[in-house]
Specification:
The chain is α/β, with parallel strands linked by helices. The chain is 36% helix and 22% strand. The chain is globular, with a radius of gyration of 19 Å. The two termini are 31 Å apart.
């Protein structure tokens, strides 16, 4: 986990929409094999940060480096090709499609078929590739314990199961880094415990590095290696879970107490 070069490095990242500042000079690094959580009150800039990493937003300032490659100017699909997957705060499933087909969508960028080789490839290897991808998707379905809903339409499922399907689709990308935006939002306690177990297994058994936004502090402190705290788009703390829990600036940010070191005149809510 403590490799010499970080897997992900964020340097002086700032993001604004007109005069609205979402992020200001944010710096952090994530090592390969970590579970790294980003926390903060509503409007802190957490989702904006994930959007900058995944390519949905392009920061006004700063750099984002993944596996030693500067990728600030890369498109989202190019970042997926490098090995970055993500889930969304608001579900982004195809409701009319089956669970299996939704997860297969996550394999799209791994297909060898393209415009020039399509007809020839279909004759020579497409069927074998299709079987290979379906086997790997079935492994993910078994891992996430959703075999019983594999043929159901995603839009008919409970919220907790749809969150699990979205995680499966992100895992289907075979990412080295997976970005999870509130993976346990709207879940009951049992569903949260299951999701926490899946995230830990993805990290420990499947070798995926995790950057996660989550509001459940019990989960964050229980499964994270390190935690970063944002408030009004600025980083106010970073460290081990116990250090974050004891940090006075963090307590003030969550309690909403005024702290002249942290609150700026033009602080605004996150846009994301």
């Amino acid at each position: 986990m403590n490799s010499a070069a970080p897997l992900l490095a964020i340097s002086q990242v700032s993001l604004a929409f007109g005069g609205v500042k979402a992020l200001t000079d944010v710096n952090f690094k994530v090592s390969k094999g970590e579970v790294f959580s980003i926390i903060g009150p509503n409007g802190a800039g957490k989702t904006s940060m994930l959007n900058c990493i995944s390519g949905r937003y392009r920061p006004n300032h700063g750099s984002i480096t993944f596996k030693g490659k500067e990728m600030t100017s890369l498109k989202p699909n190019e970042r997926s090709d490098l090995g970055i997957g993500r889930t969304f705060q608001n579900l982004a499933l195809f409701g009319h499609m089956s669970v299996l087909d939704n997860i297969m969508v996550g394999r799209h960028h791994l297909l060898k078929n393209n415009f020039t080789t399509g007809p020839l490839y279909w004759v020579s290897g497409a069927q074998k590739e299709e079987l290979k991808h379906r086997r790997e998707v079935e492994d993910i379905i078994d891992f996430l314990e959703i075999s019983h809903i594999r043929k159901k339409q995603a839009g008919t499922l409970s919220y907790g199961l749809r969150k699990r399907v979205e995680l499966a689709r992100a895992v289907a990308l075979k990412p080295d880094l997976i970005l999870l935006d509130e993976p346990m939002a709207g879940m009951n306690q049992e569903e949260k415990e299951d999701m926490a177990r899946f995230i830990l297994d993805l990290n420990e058994e499947w070798g995926m590095t995790v950057v996660m936004i989550e509001h459940d502090m019990g989960v964050v402190m229980g499964i994270s290696n390190r935690v970063m705290v944002l408030d009004f788009g600025r980083k106010i703390a970073e460290g081990l879970p116990d250090e974050i829990m004891a940090n006075e600036h963090v307590k003030k940010a969550y309690l909403g107490e005024e702290d002249e070191l942290l609150v700026e005149e033009d602080a605004v809510e996150e846009i994301a």
